[in-house]
Design a protein that fits this description.
single chain; about 650 residues; alpha+beta; 8-stranded antiparallel β-sheet; 5-stranded parallel β-sheet; 25 helices; 24 strands; about 20% strand; globular
Length: about 650
């Protein structure tokens, strides 16, 4: 075998024995290998068996070929390469077992022989999906911040190139630094420019677009344009997005699937007087909701008749500003419910599973602030009932990809469908912590055409996880936005702590976007351990330069009712959290000498870096430089 110019692999005696065995098995395919090397574009057509075998090894991450592999012209190098790659991952190989497998004539594929011979235990190694015929080479990420970075990481692990778009103020973001390619889209509002985003995807030869969450993630026009231009939208079809995006239509779909929904009308409200008539029938309190979207926008709770007209007008205006559609619907308002959502994965072959629930009951103005898994409110029996209801609904409508079905759970343990999110959720990380499933990678593979390779009973929820959303907001001052520059950023660490963020020292929190700084996720064997770790993590988290919601989260975690899991969507109001927070006088921070030095040195470093960049960008006149060099040589310049 060549030592340096071909494949640089060193095999020990044990590995050579296996390599020799594989060589004997592969010898009939030697001619085919030469053809594969010289005409790779025609190999799939001319030699489908070999192509499929090798492709299977790569797709299942058994081997990871590099450019050096194809510099060799010997079939032995292929087998040596396969042996070395496999043995890196499976050091427990038994040579006699391999020889026995290879010596038996069989109609099994080469991949099956290898996996059997090398002792892969499917019960221990989780293979969540089996890839389809084709894989993505490059994905455009139509988003920014934390979720863009999260998708980049998933792409890297899958061997897919990533392309990001960024606004004029974000050229130094981590997403831009870590992506394989990046494109400036100009003003912040251009994140919503469908045509520009798809045009960039075409120019950069992307196979697919991942929308993340927010922005265009649930825009049916965007998904439709992607389909028209031959680019895969990583999410459901535009028709499905349109069906589920209309909240009234979504409730009709769920009713057909025998999923309970809250009492209300099955159509959009025609006027404020129509809303008044319906409210008199179903009884107060009622809630007005935007038909075109969620996230707390366009929602108003109406407790009495005289408040209806004002609430209707304000909800209509907010819905129009948020979604470009002022349609509203009305339903009975459940008092003191919990917000429970189920994470779903579905492939195009009709297979659907759920990965447990998330309890998102700690909210302010319908915006989630703290999430935890599993919900302390659910018994195993109720979890199974709600999970099966979610799965059956997804099967009935033919949904594909990752999604979330959201329910309200009343004090009598009755649950009601409220909406479905046809995208990855902000809070998906807490589910990943207790299931060990990478939801973003699974979402991408499902979009490639992968098939779910496990059943509902294979999903195990282990331990407990809690997430706190750290925003650049002054929680003591009614969550007033706090844009600015983070001058000092030190995230917490230690066992069971995960930080999802794209921030760093010197990072700017821009006023045009969501104020999310970081998602702090803590895992524990029990709920108590997860809470204890979260308290420690929040104490360790240093963010200076902007106000944050860390004090709010620490205050919530200290409340007895939260520790006892006596939580509903009205927790903040019922426990007068905001009033208590306002009553706490913030301590006047006296900066120690070390912090003053840190702030000054950070500012100086940033100034010098900018100055150096500007100097590098300036074109220096070569005649001036020549004259200066001549003067220095003659000694006419003073030291």
């Amino acid at each position: 075998m060549p030592r340096n110019k071909r494949i640089k692999l060193r095999l020990n005696q044990r590995q050579k024995i296996i390599a020799d065995s594989i060589n004997k098995f592969l010898s009939p395919f030697e001619k085919a290998y030469f053809v594969l090397k010289n005409s790779i574009s025609k190999s799939k057509e001319n030699f489908p068996a070999i192509y499929t075998y090798f492709e299977g090894l790569v797709k299942h991450h058994i081997i990871t070929p590099g450019k050096d592999l194809f510099k060799s012209s010997k079939i032995e190098d292929m087998s040596n390469f396969i042996t070395a790659n496999v043995m890196k991952r499976l050091p427990h190989i038994d040579e006699s077992q391999v020889e026995e497998i290879l010596s038996k004539p069989s109609n099994k594929s080469f991949l099956e022989i290898l996996t059997e011979g090398f002792g892969i235990n499917k019960e221990k190694e989780k293979t969540y999906t089996v890839l389809g015929n084709g894989g993505f080479k490059r994905i455009l990420i139509a988003n920014r911040g934390e979720i863009a970075l999260r998708i980049i990481r998933a792409c890297r692990e899958l061997g897919i190139e990533s392309v990001v778009i960024y606004s004029e103020d974000e050229k130094d973001s981590l997403a831009v630094k870590f992506a394989d390619k990046s494109y400036n889209i100009g003003k912040p509002k251009n994140y919503l420019d469908i045509k520009k985003t798809v045009k960039i995807a075409n120019q950069s030869n992307c196979d697919a677009i991942h929308p993340g969450y927010g922005f265009l993630a649930e825009n049916p026009k965007f998904a439709k344009l992607c389909q028209k231009k031959g680019i895969k939208f990583i999410g459901p079809s535009y028709k499905m997005i349109k069906k589920l995006g209309d909240k009234v239509e979504a409730k009709k779909v769920m009713l057909k699937s025998n999923i309970p929904v809250i009492e209300g009308v099955k159509e959009d409200l025609r006027s404020k007087r129509h809303a008044l008539r319906v409210a008199r029938i179903i009884g107060y309190p009622v809630i007005l909701k935007a038909s075109a979207g969620g996230g707390g926008k366009g929602m108003r709770i109406v407790a009495k008749e005289e408040d209806m007209f004002e609430a209707y007008e304000s909800a209509k205006k907010e819905a129009l500003n948020a979604f470009g559609d002022d349609s509203l619907y009305i339903e009975k308002y459940l008092e003191e419910p919990r917000h429970i959502e189920f994470q779903i994965l579905a492939d195009k072959y009709g297979n659907v599973i759920h990965l447990g629930e998330r309890d998102c009951s700690i909210q302010r103005r319908h915006q989630k602030l703290i999430e935890e898994v599993p919900s302390p409110a659910l018994t195993p029996e109720l979890r199974e009932i709600m999970g099966n209801a979610a799965v059956n609904a997804i099967k009935a409508i033919g949904y594909e990809g990752a999604g979330t079905i959201e329910f309200l759970l009343d004090k009598n343990k009755n649950f009601y469908f409220i909406e479905m999110n046809a995208r990855i959720q902000v809070e998906h990380g807490v589910t990943e912590m207790v299931t060990n499933v990478d939801l973003v990678k699974e979402q991408i593979k499902l979009a490639e055409g992968a098939k779910l390779d496990y059943k509902q009973e294979d999903i195990k929820i282990e331990g407990h996880a809690i997430e706190c959303r750290i925003n650049a907001e002054d929680s003591i001052n009614d969550f007033l936005p706090s844009p600015g520059t983070i001058v000092n950023y030190l995230p917490p660490g230690g066992p069971g702590i995960r930080i999802s963020s794209s921030c760093h020292s010197g990072c700017k929190i821009l006023p045009h976007f969501d104020s999310l700084i970081a998602l702090v996720i803590c895992y524990g064997k029990t709920r108590q351990e997860a809470i204890t770790r979260m308290k420690r993590a929040l104490d360790e988290f240093i963010i200076e330069g902007v106000k944050t919601t860390i004090p709010f989260h620490k205050f919530i975690l200290s409340k007895r009712q939260f520790l006892r899991s006596n939580v509903t969507t009205s927790f903040i109001e019922n426990n007068k959290i905001m009033e208590e927070l306002k009553g706490i006088k913030p301590k006047k921070e006296v900066l120690p000498k070390e912090k003053k030095i840190l702030i000054v040195t950070t500012a100086v470093a940033q100034y010098l870096a900018k100055r150096q960049n500007s100097m590098n960008n300036k074109k220096v006149n070569p005649w001036i430089m020549a004259a200066r060099q001549e003067a220095m040589n003659e000694g006419s310049l003073e030291e």
